[in-house]
Specification:
By secondary structure, the protein is an alpha/beta fold. Helices cover about 30% and strands about 30% of the residues. Helix 2 runs parallel beside helix 3 (about 105-115). The structure holds zinc ion.
Length: about 260
Amino acid sequence: MEVKTHNNCPLCGSDKYSFHRDIFWEGYEFSYMTCRCGGFFLNPMPNQEWYDEKYTNDFWPRKTRKPRWFQWKKQIQKAEHFIKMIGDTLINDKPKVLDVGCSYGYVGRILAMNYGSRAYGIEPSIREREWARAIGVYMMKGFDTGEQTDKNLYDIVIISHVLENMVSPREFLTQIYNKMSPNGILIIDTPNIAHTKSWHIWHPYLFSRECLLNLVGSMGFHIMKDGTWGKIGMIPYRHKYLTVLAVKDEDTDTYR
Ligand SMILES: [Zn+2]
């Protein structure tokens, strides 16, 4: 396994971070660092190729042992949650919806159906990708790197349980930014740092509310709404997930 050691926090660039706790996985030992920006990151950190390979061959086969209807139900609930959150924030007519890491594709498909538009998806796992295609999501191999025109920009981009898996979240968000139309809406859903069950090797990063808002705000987006949801057992005020709804800043319309 190839790992990278970070001298500065990859989320905020600060060197003011400290050891938080060890994570053990199949004989390897990793450590979460806690940074003053409010985030955790693994240091050293496996590279993206390692994660991509593990996601396809190890993580998904494990996750999909749960019945599919259970995954579908969760996706439908999530779509309803996002539609409610978008509310009247949406300016663009017939929004092109892109769901990055769309799995079975229900979230993007339901959103697009709700707005009478088309859903696009990116998904590395073959079985889920084929399912999403079958329910009417237009599947893409990855971000098209061709010329940017008004026609290939997205009005709603969903990144649900993806950002915490990317080894370079800032680069990933820049890529997303460049694919969005002016006034485009970005929805990020990620595990809440307070949910200790999400502290594991699959998540090179974990975000607190403060950390995620600062990160997204520093990448050319204007935060419109945010919140936590999904109760952790009986504990009041502690939630499993963190959602941010942000709009691409009109003033920073030039592609970076
Ligand atoms: Zn930091």
